[in-house]
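Incident log, structure service

09:12 report received: a user says their structure output differs between two submissions of the same chain.
09:20 pulled the input from the user's history:
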Amino acid sequence: MSRATIIVPCLNEEKTITQLLEAIYAQDFPRRDLEVVIADGLSTDGTRKRILAFQQRQKDLEIKVVDNPTRSIPAGLNVAIGAARGEYLIRLDAHCIPQPDYVSKSIAALEANRGWNVGGVWEIKPGGKGWVAESIAVAASHPLGVGDAYYRFTDRARQVDTVPFGAFRRDLIDRIGSFDETLLSNEDYEFNTRIRLAGGKVWLDPSIRSVYFARPTLVQLARQYARYGYWKWRMLRRYPGTLRLRQAMPPLFVISLIILPLLGLVWPLAFWVLLLEVVSYLVILFGAALRKALERKKMQLTLGIPLAMATMHLSWGSAFLWSFATRGN
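09:34 re-ran on a clean worker, output below:
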């Protein structure tokens, strides 16, 4: 039996799958104790060819590819877990590049009983070229953009609500169950919620690091955060007590943008309240953006970062409200 299994759900990832496999191959963890299980959602691009080519080059790393006909991330994770033989399961994503000590540090934290699920910090990089892609990467790692999602920016180890990806012992699945396949997003948060409800801890260790590539365009960013917001409501229906302030703010902001103009038709002061809210919001965003632009000596970020943050907030909040209004159907 392999000591550790890296599980990776993927779909049409020909552009990034090789760099992930190369990063796994460069791990300081013994390859004889490591296997990789990739749950492929029946990719229609060159993903499988890239995996096969890597297998032929690096035959000392065991790589299995299993079909994920459902094509969703939680289903892929469950299929990969079913095919895994490792005592420790380490989830990764085709869009990330783990540091060489990622596996060894994850297992060390588990063996030290830091938590039932252990994860690290993302070093978020632009997913494309140009100032828009760079602005998105900055926004996705800034507290104004992501609230207290510590795995995007912290440098202090701590107990948290959730971690990206995560590493856990295989027997955890027997204890709390597998990933919820009814959620097409937020499956990690839901999984970690069950850990906490069962009395376990979710531990974030900033020495466990991986590079994660942000969405390259505002349109793709909007789609990503709309998906997050929509499926967040589905999860909250089951676990209402898990709602955090960072998650409540975007839908409340969107509601205010709808209600205040309507209220202003009968109460003119509402228009001034709306103006104050919008101006304050923009001042805060542009203030944060200006600091980042000066740090990086790229003044175009002064426009790009507020655009990215507003896209994240409005997409997330609107989709959350739509999911609530339609009962997630």
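09:41 both user submissions now match this output. Likely a transient worker issue. Closing.
09:42 reviewer note: The beta strands are 4-10, 34-40, 62-67, 88-91, 96-98, 117-125, 158-159, 167-169, 202-213. The radius of gyration is 21 Å.
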